Amino acid sequence: MASGGGVDLEEIPSVDLMTELLRRMKCSSKPDKRLILIGPPGSGKGTQSPLIKDEYCLCHLATGDMLRAAVAAKTPLGIKAKETMEKGELVSDDLVVGIIDEAIKKPSCQKGFILDGFPRTVAQAEKLDEMLGKQGTKIDKVLNFAIDDAILEERITGRWIHPPSGRTYHTKFTPPKAPGLDDVTGEPLIQRKDDTAEVLKSRLEAFHRQTAPVIDYYSKKGNVAQLHAEKPPKEVTAEVQKALA
């Protein structure tokens, strides 16, 4: 390590330096984007967000991960969040917005960010807008991964997993060779607790109840893009690119 806390460039393989240089050149020409991804479990946000992140050089902010990172790093907000969570209470909206505020000042968020899992309520959306307003920025687009509950149910309740290897199957889309058994070991497959119809139903009800008002809130500002999340991933990617063009 060089003095002053910098990294000695000679220690970094030149391939990595070139890759990073090319990435920065590519990124410098990209417009800044501040995005919110909204969609129920299984709507494909997890598939699209890394693609969006790479394409537009954004940072991906998943509030759960950020909270855990702030707690681990023992930042002032992290310490506060830890005390709240240890009492079994929910972390306040102000605290979460504060942690987002801290995160978006990092160099990796220079071109903007993707927010995932937040805001879940109109109150949170208002606090987020207020914080961004103080920095002279705003949310550019809200990508709404709209999908019919019945399609989601088929997608999610058909998932089966082989726990030792992590191999996943789907009764309709990628069935195992022998029903209920792993292709490689022949061991029985299980269904995750969260992947049952009952759990999904309650999660979807909560999602619609909480999130529908958030979509309305941003629709009034005219920055919601409706995606047809039931389509194959490549087609959804094309819709995302069109929405962000």
TrEMBL record:
Residues 159-194 form the Adenylate kinase active site lid domain. Its EC number is 2.7.4.3. One of its GO terms (molecular function) is AMP kinase activity. The keyword Kinase applies. Keywords: Kinase, Nucleotide-binding, Transferase. Pfam families: ADK, ADK_lid. Residues 228-237 have a biased composition (Basic and acidic residues). The keyword Signal does not apply. Gene3D superfamilies: P-loop containing nucleotide triphosphate hydrolases. It catalyses: AMP + ATP = 2 ADP. Catalyzes the reversible transfer of the terminal phosphate group between ATP and AMP. Plays an important role in cellular energy homeostasis and in adenine nucleotide metabolism. Belongs to the adenylate kinase family. This is adenylate kinase.
